[in-house]
Specification:
Aminopeptidase, Alpha-Beta Plaits, 2 domains, four-stranded antiparallel beta sheet, 18 strands, globular
Amino acid sequence: MNLTKEEQKYAAHLQRFIQCATVSNANVDRVDWSQFEKLHEAFREFYPHIFSLMELDEVGQAGLQFHLKGSGSDKKPLLLMAHQDVVEVGDGRQWTFDPFGGELIDGCICGRGTTDCKHLLLAEMEAVEALLAEGWRPSYDLYLSLGYSEEVYLENDVDGAEKLTRNLEQKGIRLGTVVDEGGGLFPVGDKLEAKIGVAEKSPVNFEIYANSPGGHSSRPGKGTALGTLAKAIVAIESHPFPYRLTPLTLAHLQKSARLQEGSRRAIYADPEGHWKELCQLAQEDPALDALLHTTIAFTMAEASKQPNVLPSHAAAQMSVRVLQGDTVESCEGYFRQFLPEGVEIRHVSGKDPLPASDPQGYGIQVAEKVLKEQYGDKVDVVPFLMLGGTDSHYYKRIADNVMLFSGYRRDERWGAAHQVNEKIPADALKGSVDFFKKFLRSY
C-alpha cells in the first residue's frame, strides 16, 4: 500500500495511540492510569495548537475537555467527543499480533482500540489541529471532550463522561450539537449509505435468581435452584418483546429503501403496508430484529462452585437493550409474568432510553451537505438507531441534538470492535479527517 505523507502521519499517530494500553476497569483502583498519561503525552506532542490555543480542563482521573471561544455568532456550541479507554484483550493467545503493538500489517493498523474508538479520537484531533495551524478560528464555541470510562460501569466512582458533562453544566453551557462515535459510511452496491445515529437503545442489566437450602448432590429431591432458574430463562427467552415501529425506525427503513435489493426495497419503502413480510425478514436478520423491539440476552450465570454441591443460590444476568417507548419499570413488569415460583428479579444497572434527536437538526443538515461535497450523489444519508450505548447520553441533557457519526468509510478489511484482531486500514484515516475539517468549517 502506497500512503501519502499525510496518510503516513495519521497512521503513525494512531500507532502511538494504540501502544498506550488505556484499558478501563469497573474498579478505578485497578486502572493503570500511567497509560492514559502516556497517551496525553502523545497528544501534547502531536497537537501543539490545540494545547496552546484552547482552554483545557482536566476532569476526573483522565478526562480532557478543551474549549475554544468563537469569534461571535448566534450558533450554539459544537462539541466533538470520543473516549480514550479500550476494552480488555481477552485471551491474548487468540490474537495473531500484539494487541498493543500498533503494528502496520498488510496495510492495516492493528491493535485494541483501532475501531473503538481511537480512530475517532484521531480524526477529531487531527482535523482541529490542522485547521488551527492554518489560522482558522470558528465563529461558534468549540469543545473537545475526551472521556476515559466508556467501556465499563464504574463500581466505585462517578463515570468520567458524567463528570465532563457536569463540568459544562456548572458553567451554564448549552450545546447545539454533540458528535460522538457510531455510524459511518457503508458501501451498498455502487452507493454509499451514510448512517447517522440520532438515538440509542438503553443498555439495562437485570438479574434473576433463586435460593434454596442447598445440600449434597446425591439427594436433590424435586430439583435445584439452578433448575428452577433455567425454567425462568427458557420462559423469558420464549417470550420476546413484540415487534413495533418507532418513528425513527420507520424513517430509517424508508430512507434506506432505495439502497436495498429485491423484495426488501418495497418492504422498506412501506414497512407498515408490508408488516408481516418485515417481521419475517427480522426473524432471519439479527440487526433488523434489534431495531424492532427491546432485546433480551442472557450472558452470565452462577450457581454452585462444585459439581457435588447443590447450589443455595443461582443467578443469571440479562443484558436488555431497551427501545424507546419501553422503560426499566415496564421491562421488569414484563419479565415478572414469566417467572416461576421461587425466582426473583432485580434491576442491576441502566436507565430509561432517551428520546431521539431531530433527524433534521442543524448538525445533521451540515453533515449531509459536507458528505454530498465529499462523495457526490452516490451517498445517501440515513438516520438510524444505535443498538449499543455511548457516552453521549450523558450530554443529552445539555444539548439540543446528538449526532452519532464517525466519518469513516467501512469495508471488509476492518477488524470488528471488541473482537480478536481488531484493526483498521491505514488508508481509511484521511477520509474521516477530511470530513471533520469540512464539517468544522461549515458548521
